[in-house]
Write a structure and sequence with these properties.
The chain is α/β, with parallel strands linked by helices. It contains 11 helices and 12 strands.
Length: 325
Amino acid sequence: MKPTLLTGATGFVGWHVARLLLERGHRVRALVRPSGRLRDLPGVEAVTGDLRDPASLTRAVEGCGCVYHVAADYRLWVPDAGEMHRSNVEGTRNLLEAARSAGVERVVYTSTVGCIGFPAGAPGNEDTPVALADMTGPYKRSKFLAERAALEYASAGFPVIIVNPTAPVGDHDFKPTPTGKIILDFLRGSMPAYVDTGLNLVDVRDVAGGHLLAAEKGRPGERYILGGENLTLEQILKRLAAVSGLEAPKTRIPYGVAFAAGAVSTAWARMTGGEPRVPLDAVRMAAKKMWVSHEKAAQRLGYQPGSVDAALARATGWFRSNGYA
């Protein structure tokens, strides 16, 4: 069996994809930056490289049959948007070019629900019209452009399948991700209020399974939303309260107040060089409920997500047992 190359194994979703590949008997080779560290993944072959270094990617993909490109610079605030562009857009092009030159048989590219359109009054899907102008902040813009690069390679005949995870939750959220930070802020008691917004939450284990389904059954050039449940932020906090034993905040603040807080927090971060407590781009994203349908993945791939409550319970337990909260 040819090895499978995975990027992002040091992160949240990538860790779970690696674990599932190992469970199913795949030979897993992980691209790890010089500063990165694989954790709790015995059996994975680590190769040192960087998405911004094409020569390292050529070495990494040699002899591989499949590539899962899960890695991304996932932050809702960055001091240098160009750095994010180089990793997410140019890095994706570098990897796809290396994979095509090496004769890789299939690539699964991990995009984001942020690249899906959100129509008023209905969940978005893979066919909802959306444009670069709709993307809020450097992260979403970079992922939109990277997804377009993946589609270009697919249109040219290279077998690239795209998956668009929503907001994954669960264990081993090392950094944590922005969604994991919501959980962590709740557990730490640093979320006294909430805004009227909504997310689609999904168990990270189901997202990992969706990646493997896409590799097996997905059509090149197609996008597949890997989602779970559409929930308001208030509903999410109440579910966290149920699994954690803590009390959910009861105060809902107006969007204008949240926007002002985000503007001040982000301006202060620019002045001090620190990270904003309330990134303005995160507040801007909250203006729309990011609700979508995963019907296409269910029908075409056999994707069947399970309980979000179980994933929230695992996330809560993992953060607590690993000293985060």
